[in-house]
Amino acid sequence: MKLFVNERVITIPADCNIEQLLTLLESPLKGSAVAVNQHIISRSTWTEYKLNEGDQIALFQAIAGG
Amino acid sequence: MLTDPETLRYSRHLLLEDVGESGQLALKSAKVLIIGMGGLGSPAALYLAAAGVGTLVISDFDHLEMSNLQRQIAYQTSDIGAAKAALMKQRLAALNPEIRVRSINTQMSESQLSMELILADIVLDCTDNMASRQMINSACVQAKKPLIVGAAIRFEGQLMFFDHSKADSACYHCLFPNNDEQVLNCSNAGVLGPVVGTIGTLQALEAIKYLLGLPSGINNKLKLFDAKTLDWQTFAINKDPKCNVCGQIQ
User: Fold this and answer.
1) Do the chains contact at B183 and A43, CB–CB below 8 Å?
2) pTM for the full predicted model
3) What residues of B act catalytically?
């Protein structure tokens, strides 16, 4: 299925969850935050959260600078 | 009642329907704790002092370095080597002698932070590292104090507001649950001064709005700022019932 990660189209297997998506993207799990359709998804639910065709994913890192 | 000098000083606030004399008096009676007097804390503290927030408690354990001056706009070259919180106290007192400023020049322990929170109406996290951010968040959840979090590196900013006086509030730890995350900061990733300044300025704006009783547009939300395009993204943060910090708060 196709979905959007940071506004780029990505094709991933159906029934993929968020943790699997990050693994496919070779993105670190630690320090990352994920939003699906403008809602932050808690890390405690990443393995159970199934992604859907057309989802708009925002993937970004924690930053601490100030 | 405002004094005559205060009426003159805050005349541009008094013209605003959302502020007026009652709003200005609310600012005057307010106490704000600002932790971190760097690139975020510089504009945040200057704006809150200028606005007439009656009591500011400012905290930083660092001394000013040459490399700070590119973005930490409250300081001058001749200040290098001095304690930032002490420098900022002088700067704020010179800016607005009508307010009280107390500076904390040492790194606060958890218990000291908890004591400071009892006295504060709202807290601004302007720090530069994950450990401090997690400690401040946890203490604010426990003390039920509203927290405005800002962060910036490179061309990116993050801004969030959690009103911990509300039991259903999400928290910083719901978003970033690992205390030991290796995260980017200004020293290892770099930052443009106006990027961190934009976020610090917005922390001051949100604090003033909160103290005036105006609703925040970012309660339980994360705003991401892209300084290259000037685009903002907004994300809702729901309380994570499994959060180690706020999950048990009913």
Assistant:
1) no
2) 0.96
3) 186
B77-93 residue pLDDT tens: 999 999 999 999 999 99
Report residues of chain A scoring pLDDT below 50. Answer: none
Grouping H, G, I as helix, E, B as strand and the rest as coil, residue B104 is: strand
Task: Give yes or no for B133 touching A (CB within 8 A).
Answer: yes
Which residue in chain B has the smallest CA separation from A57? B235
Mutation pick from A30, A32, A42 vs chain B, by most beta carbons of B within 10 Å, is A42
Strand B55-59 with B100-104, pairing: parallel
Alpha helices in chain B (DSSP H): 4-9, 11-14, 20-28, 41-51, 84-95, 110-119, 130-143, 172-175, 186-189, 193-212
ipTM for the predicted complex: 0.94
Are residues B222 and A40, on separate chains, in Cβ contact within 8 Å? yes
Residues 6+ apart with CB under 8 A from B111: none
Asked whether the beta carbons of B114 and B139 are under 8 A apart, the reply is yes
Cβ <8 Å between A63 and B152: yes
